[in-house]
């Protein structure tokens, strides 16, 4: 699943959470993304900046749904997950046995295989502690880190009713 496909299926409230986090914690990333998206639409940044925040968010989401915004969209997802959701990432790494820096950044190699049992245990632990939509988003983005994803994780994302982006 590409970034634009994620944005086409994601609950808009989750995108609002992400954008709120950037506005509160890393305004430079927010401004940079806004500028890049405006430029990709051949708009002046000031045109978008003059909009009320709610309208900016709606415009950003609409733009991120476009295939041409994949790179920016993926960067935003990765930056938010890595900086704003470290507890969840670290818990996942612990559950599946991936070496990390204590904040969820992988320090070793990603595993070649993930067993169904390991994935089931990790998903149960994450859903117990975090918003299932956020968990789904993270697992979807994580599964993009290996070409074709991990079969057990892909199957879990498709079959577990708790895991939905919408």
Protein traits:
166 residues, mainly alpha, 2 domains, 10 helices, 68% helix, elongated
Task: Describe the fold and architecture.
- The protein is mainly alpha-helical and about 170 residues long.
- The chain has two domains: about 5-70, no CATH class; about 85-160, no CATH class.
- The chain is about 70% helix and about 0% strand.
- The protein is built from ten helices and no strands.
- It has helices at about 5-10, 10-25, 25-40, 45-50, 55-65, 70-85, 85-95, 115-130, 130-145, 150-160.
- Helix 2 packs across helix 3.
- The two termini are about 15 Å apart.
Give a concise summary.
The chain has ten helices and no strands.
What's the arrangement of secondary structure elements?
Elements: H1 3-9, H2 12-25, H3 27-40, H4 45-49, H5 53-64, H6 70-84, H7 86-96, H8 116-129, H9 132-143, H10 151-159
Structural domains: how many: 2
Number of strands: 0
Q: How confident is the prediction overall: mean pLDDT?
A: 94
Rg is 16 Å
């Amino acid at each position: 699943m590409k970034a634009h496909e994620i944005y086409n299926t994601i609950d808009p409230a989750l995108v609002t959470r992400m954008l709120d986090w950037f506005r509160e914690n890393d305004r430079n990333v927010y401004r940079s993304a806004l500028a890049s998206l405006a430029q990709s639409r051949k708009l002046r940044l000031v045109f978008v900046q003059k909009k009320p925040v709610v309208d900016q968010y709606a415009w950003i989401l609409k733009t991120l749904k476009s295939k041409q915004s994949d790179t920016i969209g993926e960067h935003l997802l990765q930056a938010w997950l890595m900086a704003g959701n470290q507890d969840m990432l670290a818990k996942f790494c612990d559950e599946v046995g991936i070496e990390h820096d204590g904040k969820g950044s992988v320090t070793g190699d990603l595993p070649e295989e993930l067993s169904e049992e390991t994935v089931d245990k990790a998903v149960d632990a994450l859903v117990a502690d975090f918003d299932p939509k956020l968990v789904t988003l993270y697992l979807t983005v994580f599964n993009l880190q290996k070409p074709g994803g991990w079969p057990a994780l892909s199957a879990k994302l498709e079959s577990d009713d708790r895991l939905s982006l919408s």
